[in-house]
């Protein structure tokens, strides 16, 4: 479900009133003979200081409105609806072809053992992933493009990206998984790459490919992991194929060439967009195995597209058959009761509080305002717990501005303010404001909060789809924190400091 390219603002503030002393009615002396700087629109501001002397609502003392106009004559449009996303000293803006550049971004601590981070920036329309080497230093940040990964045309390679971590305990090489959900007419594919040699890398030749097994399966739509679902000490990968209604769990990321041969398959049904988002977290109910969450934003139980998320322990797959359904693995359904909420469209492990917390986006909630929920999973599978839950008793949440589709992108797991709790980052878009916003949300909370407010901060660049993809990153080599917001229509990815 594509919620990421809607446009956003924080609402429609009232027009500011000019002070009565300076906005007195015009007299003949205001415009008559001998007046060298007349006030043409009667707003009390001389024409030389008024950027639109024909409109009394526009002048330096006016309040900025969300209307695509510079109301307060400061040279910027709608700039007061989010902090300017100041790039890190450098600045650091990745640029590519306008269209889909930046639809997915994955930062990796080190691909080639040179103690420098690499960033993968995808352009699915071109089936290309640019690899940038990024160096954060005390007063500067430098970046250079080092590789270009190329997939099959029209495959949308790079639609999803995930860092699979080190290949072994000797830290010799990292692996990256790349989703191409439209490969071969919609069957989809996953490329696993661990050799980054040369500038141009052909994924069909230099990467290990796993292809979809069904027409229109869209294998590679979402990833989760790596997490150790079978308890052998090695991270495993989960990948979805929503078109066929299957979630594949690959132990040890020891891929075969066909998705049909992957270690475990969870049949979730193809009718509810299940697998549009995936997330995995730490130990589930203290049983030693991580949890896995499957987002189904099209789940329809009452009035249409309320959305649901199924959560279960990875350990329940060990004794299960090769292909299982959600009932066989004792999955708990957490669902919305609101029509059109599309709960489960986006997900990430919550960095704040318990390690068993899940963050879920519902960009259609509240009539399109959107919401982001944080759900405590620690008691979900306690004794006597029912197999399904509603959101009302299980969460704290953030409510987005009107018509903003807030929650269409989420990320987290970095402690920006060093208070022991990680922060979240999300995005909003929608009419009437032409610019998207990226929101930094505090890591603690126990109630419902509405934006703007609640300690959240918003950032803007003026790009209409800023926030189409978002991220938050702590560079391990410099201890630098960066926020990531992409504007694919402009072909830009902004890397900026939260301050």
Structure, explained:
The chain has 499 residues and is an all-beta fold. It has a domain at 98-419: Methylamine Dehydrogenase, Chain H. The chain is built from 3 helices and 33 strands. The chain has helices at 28-31, 203-206, 365-368, and strands at 83-84, 93-95, 105-108, 117-123, 128-136, 141-150, 160-166, 174-180, 189-193, 200-202, 208-211, 223-227, 236-241, 246-250, 264-267, 277-283, 290-296, 308-313, 323-325, 332-335, 346-349, 357-362, 371-376, 388-390, 395-399, 410-414, 423-428, 437-441, 448-450, 457-460, 470-475, 480-487, 492-496. The strands form 7 sheets. It has a 5-stranded mixed β-sheet with strand order 1-30-28-27-26, with no helix packed on it. It has a 5-stranded mixed β-sheet with strand order 3-4-5-6-10. The radius of gyration is 25 Å and the shape is globular. 52% of the residues are buried. Residues 1-31 have low confidence and may be disordered.
Question: Using only CA atoms, what is the Rg?
Answer: 25 Å
Structural class: mainly beta
Query: Major beta sheet, specifics?
Result: 5 strands, mixed
In CATH terms, the superfamily of the domain at 98-419 is Integrin alpha, N-terminal
Can you give me a brief rundown of this structure?
The chain has 499 residues and is an all-beta fold.
Keyphrases for this structure?
disordered N terminus, mainly beta, Methylamine Dehydrogenase, Chain H, five-stranded mixed beta sheet, 3 helices, 499 residues
Topology (SSEs and partners):
Layout: H1 28-31, E1 83-84, E2 93-95, E3 105-108, E4 117-123, E5 128-136, E6 141-150, E7 160-166, E8 174-180, E9 189-193, E10 200-202, H2 203-206, E11 208-211, E12 223-227, E13 236-241, E14 246-250, E15 264-267, E16 277-283, E17 290-296, E18 308-313, E19 323-325, E20 332-335, E21 346-349, E22 357-362, H3 365-368, E23 371-376, E24 388-390, E25 395-399, E26 410-414, E27 423-428, E28 437-441, E29 448-450, E30 457-460, E31 470-475, E32 480-487, E33 492-496
Parallel strand pairs: 1-30, 6-10, 15-19, 20-24, 25-29
Antiparallel strand pairs: 2-33, 3-4, 4-5, 5-6, 7-8, 8-9, 9-11, 12-13, 13-14, 14-15, 16-17, 17-18, 18-20, 21-22, 22-23, 23-25, 26-27, 27-28, 28-30, 31-32, 32-33
């Amino acid at each position: 479900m594509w919620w990421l390219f809607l446009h956003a603002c924080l609402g429609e503030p009232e027009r500011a009133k000019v002070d009565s002393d300076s906005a007195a009615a015009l007299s003949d002396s205001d415009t008559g003979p001998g007046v060298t700087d007349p006030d043409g629109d009667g707003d009390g501001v001389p024409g030389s200081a008024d950027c639109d002397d024909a409109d009394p609502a526009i002048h330096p003392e006016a309040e900025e409105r969300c209307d695509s106009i510079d109301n307060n004559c400061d040279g910027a449009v709608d700039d007061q609806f989010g902090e300017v996303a100041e790039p890190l000293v450098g600045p650091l803006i990745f640029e590519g072809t306008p269209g889909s550049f930046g639809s997915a971004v994955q930062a990796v601590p080190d691909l080639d053992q040179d103690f420098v981070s690499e960033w993968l920036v995808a352009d699915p329309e071109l089936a290309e992933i640019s690899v940038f080497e990024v160096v954060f230093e005390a007063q500067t940040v430098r970046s250079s493009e080092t590789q270009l990964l190329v997939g099959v045309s029209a495959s949308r390679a790079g639609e999803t990206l995930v860092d699979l971590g080190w290949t072994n305990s000797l830290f010799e090489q990292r692996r990256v998984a790349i989703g191409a959900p439209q490969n071969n007419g919609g069957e989809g594919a996953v490329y696993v790459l661990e050799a980054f040699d040369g500038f141009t890398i052909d994924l069909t030749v230099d990467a290990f490919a796993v292809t979809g097994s069904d027409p229109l399966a869209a294998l590679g739509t979402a990833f989760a992991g790596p997490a150790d679902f079978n308890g052998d000490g090695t991270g495993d990968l989960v990948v979805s194929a929503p078109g066929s209604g299957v979630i594949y769990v690959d132990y040890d990321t020891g891929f075969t060439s066909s998705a049909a041969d992957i270690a475990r398959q969870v049949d979730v049904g193809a009718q509810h967009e299940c697998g549009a988002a995936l997330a995995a977290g730490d130990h589930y109910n203290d049983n030693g195995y991580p949890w896995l969450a499957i987002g189904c934003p099209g789940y329809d139980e009452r009035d249409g597209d309320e959305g649901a998320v199924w959560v279960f322990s990875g350990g329940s797959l060990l004794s299960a058959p090769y292909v299982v359904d959600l009932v066989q693995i004792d999955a708990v359904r957490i669902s919305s009761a609101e029509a059109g909420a599309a709960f489960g469209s986006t997900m990430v492990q919550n960095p704040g509080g318990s390690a068993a917390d899940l963050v879920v986006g519902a960009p259609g909630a509240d009539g399109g305002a959107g919401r982001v929920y944080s759900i405590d999973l620690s008691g979900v599978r306690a004794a006597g717990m029912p197999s399904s839950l509603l959101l009302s008793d299980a969460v704290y949440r953030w409510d987005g501005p009107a018509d903003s589709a807030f929650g269409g992108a989420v990320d987290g797991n970095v402690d920006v303010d060093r208070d022991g709790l990680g922060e979240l980052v999300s995005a909003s878009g929608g009419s009437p404001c032409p610019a998207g916003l990226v929101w930094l949300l505090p890591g603690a909370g126990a109630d419902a909060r509405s934006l703007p407010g609640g300690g959240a901060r918003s950032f803007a660049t003026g790009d209409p789809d800023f926030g189409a993809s978002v991220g938050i990153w702590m560079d391990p080599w410099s201890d630098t924190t960066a926020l990531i917001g992409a504007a694919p229509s402009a072909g830009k990815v902004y890397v900026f400091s939260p301050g």
